[in-house]
Every structure is written in C-alpha cells, then in structure tokens.
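Comment on both lines for my students:
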Amino acid sequence: MRRSIWLPAFLASAATATFTQAQQAPATVKDAIQAVENEWATAYLKHDASILERILDKDYYIYDAATGVTGTKATEIESTKKSKAAFTSVANPLHSVRVHGDFAIVIGRYVAKGTENGKPIADDSPWQTIFAKRDGKWVALASFVAPGPPAKKP
C-alpha cells in the first residue's frame, strides 16, 4: 500500500519540477538575448565594431525597410566604424521572444538619440531578428527593420 501512494506522489513532484523548469527556460533565454541586444546597443553607442564581430553570425543579413538598404555582417561593422553619429542613448528593448530549439525569433525596438553632423537625430524603429545558439552563445542570423512612427512635430 505504501508503495502505491509513494509512486503517484513522486510522479506528481517530478512533473511539477519539470513544468517549473520549462516555464523558467524562456525567461533565461529572453535574458540572454536581451544581454546580446544590450551589447549591440553599446556597439552603436561607442562605435565598437568588435562587439558586432562577436554577436553577428558570419552569414548575418539585414534589410532596412525604411531606407531599402540591405547589409551583411561586414557592412554593419564598416558602417559602425565610419558612423559620425554621436549618440547620447541607444536601447533595444524586447517585445517578444519565441524560442524554437536553438533558434529564437525576437521582436523589439531600436531607440536612439544623439546628433549627426550637428543635427539632432532620434530613431524609434521596430525590428525583428532571428537568433541561433552557436557554441552555447546566441548570435544574430538576420534582421528586418521596419519604418518607425512619424517624427513628432514640436
């Protein structure tokens, strides 16, 4: 009799632990991807192309729908090195992270303020990036940047 009570209690306990772990995993992945996005923001803020070397996959591809410009890892690195923008802030807040094994589809916003050639700049553009987990680290495979909302008039 004791054995028949023990087995269901054990199975219920194991199922609860497994369910709890499965719920916590997406938060951990989201935190890891947010950390990558924070690094990405720092790369733009400080014009630090070495960060992009680490977080962009060798085959990275980007399409900016606002400008029609496409790019690769190499063009993103070159653009970051040559940028004349003096950012006062850059952030990439996440809205959604959908994990599929070693891949994640991430939706967020690029929010930046600063000056370029003495003129103020402000950007608030939604984006979508596909990440892959490679050698234990999340790297960006491809990004799509959509046009942001129209600029507000003073």
Summary: The radius of gyration is 21 Å. The CA atoms of residues 94 and 108 lie 4 Å apart.
